[in-house]
Amino acid sequence: MIQINSLTKNYGSFHLNVSFDVCDGEVVAMIGRNGSGKTTTFKALLGLTIADGGQVHINGKDAWHLCHEDKSSIGVVMGDAGFNKVMRLKDIERIMASAYPKWNREHFLGFATKYNLAMDKPLSTFSTGMNVLAKLDMALSIGATTLILDEPTAGLDVVARTKILDILRDFMAEGENHSILISSHISSDLATLADRILLIDQGKIIFETTMNALDESYGVIKFTDQDYATSGFTNEPSLKTPWGTMVLTNDREDIRTKHPDWIIEKTTLDQLMMILVGKEEA
Amino acid sequence: MHIIINTSSMVPIYEQIVDAIAKEIMDGSLSAGSNLPSVRALANTLRISSLTVKKAYDVLESRGLVTTIHGKGSFVSMNNDGLIKESLEHEAEEKINDGLNRLVKLGYTKQQCDQLLHLLLEDLYDSN
After folding, report:
1. Angstroms from B58 CA to nearest CA on chain A
2. Which residue in B46, B54, B60 sits closest to B6, CA to CA?
3. Cβ contacts (< 8 Å) between A211 and chain B: which residues?
């Protein structure tokens, strides 16, 4: 469980200020444009960059003053962090084994065998996908109950991404107290994994919903410009496109009953992002 | 259990799961007392969020088709033949109701609705 209360960080004109929880048994995904504050949030909550204010608690304890054992309950995969690429998994295994009290050697080796990760070749010979798998193997073998993953699927093809997502769903199935905080650019990945979505923009969480609500209630109405003008929906969140206007609604079924001739789709995360934060680029 | 999710359908995913499981209970492929997969396991199999599966199980439970025992999982309820029939009838009624609502919104009078239902029924029984 992660509890974040008014976590702030200022860089020049950029101001981060976020509050949110990740409950036990829950997968929370943070989405947002490049530079919106996702990675800053992850770094600040882990204490990898010093926050300017706020509190972060992980499993009830102050995240910036965790003892060694507490830290081993948190598995982290960050885009640019990892072991030197000249190292081999068998070297890394020895380091991790002496650094982490609950290190699970069998799990580490079993995972490496299952996903064909060579123990005796330097990481520099690994493909992008294998490198992510190796990092995930380390994060999962320290006995973590909470995973914090910043863009774990970035740069991976759909086959590798599906593999990673299956591993994460397995992790969630293995313990009721397991939880994941994840960020990704690839919204279809999150749609099949996340329970809840946080949309961050310019350092603030501007929208939050469960995937269930997105699936059941939200919809996108597609209007021609003419129909849009007279639709009565001109005050709702919308996005102008070359063919007309997309409008976000959170009562899809009601509108479908009242206006059976309108074109309404389920809202994808991509549409959600475009409508709520994509304005200036449209 | 055999469930295929149609992600491009307008029917919410939880409802698709409810329908699929209710159908299997109805046609006997899931017998009374048999164990449903755990929420996380089914979420893994279907590659969807577990909250969605949880919601589907909650709906099945509220309809009396499934019983959840904390710590033991979810089971197909015993003696549910009557309940299944009731649940299916209820669902069919709702669909007719939706359709009628739509017609009324389109300006159908009570008489026109009545005539249409009459015609449809005649067609149905003639073709059978």
Report:
1. 13
2. B46
3. 49, 51-52
Q: Does A211 lie at the interface with B, CB-CB under 8 angstroms?
A: yes
| Shortest CA gap A181–chain B (Å) | 14
Mind listing the pLDDT tens digit for each residue in B61-112?
Answer: 988 889 998 888 899 987 666 777 777 788 889 889 988 988 898 899 999 9
Polymer length in residues for chain B = 128
| Domain extent listing, chain B | 13-79, 82-127
CB contact under 8 A, A194 and B49: yes
A170 touches chain B (CB under 8 A): yes
ipTM over 0.90: no
For the domain bounded by A2-212, which CATH number is listed? 3.40.50.300
* B13-79 CATH pick, 1.10.10.10, 3.40.50.1220, 1.20.810.10, 1.10.10.250: 1.10.10.10
* Cβ burial, residue B118 (10 Å; 0-12/13-18/19+): exposed
Which of B40, B48, B102 is opposite residue A192, by nearest beta carbon? B48
**Among partner residues B12, B52, B102, which is closest to A260 by beta-carbon distance?**
B102
Helix (H) or strand (E) holding A94: helix A89-99
Chain A residue numbers with beta carbons less than 8 Å from the beta carbon of B40 are: 169, 172-173
- Cβ distance A169 to B43 less than 8 Å, yes or no, reads yes
Is the distance from CB of A243 to CB of B88 less than 8 angstroms?
no
Give the nearest partner residue to A212 out of B10, B52, B102, using CB atoms: B52
Q: Which is more confidently placed, B126 or A263?
A: A263
pTM: 0.83
Written as six digits, the tokens of A176 are: 């009721």
Domain boundaries, chain A: 2-212, 218-281
pLDDT tens figures, A21-42 = 999 999 999 999 988 999 999 9
Torsion of CA A145, A148, A153, A159, to 10 degrees: 10
Question: Measured between alpha carbons, how far is B70 from B12 in angstroms, rounded to an integer?
Answer: 26
Please indicate if any CB of chain B lies within 8 Å of the CB of A193: yes
Contact between residue B82 and residue B64 where contact means Cβ atoms under 8 Å apart? no
**Structure confidence by residue, pLDDT tens digits, A261-282:** 899 999 999 999 999 998 754 4
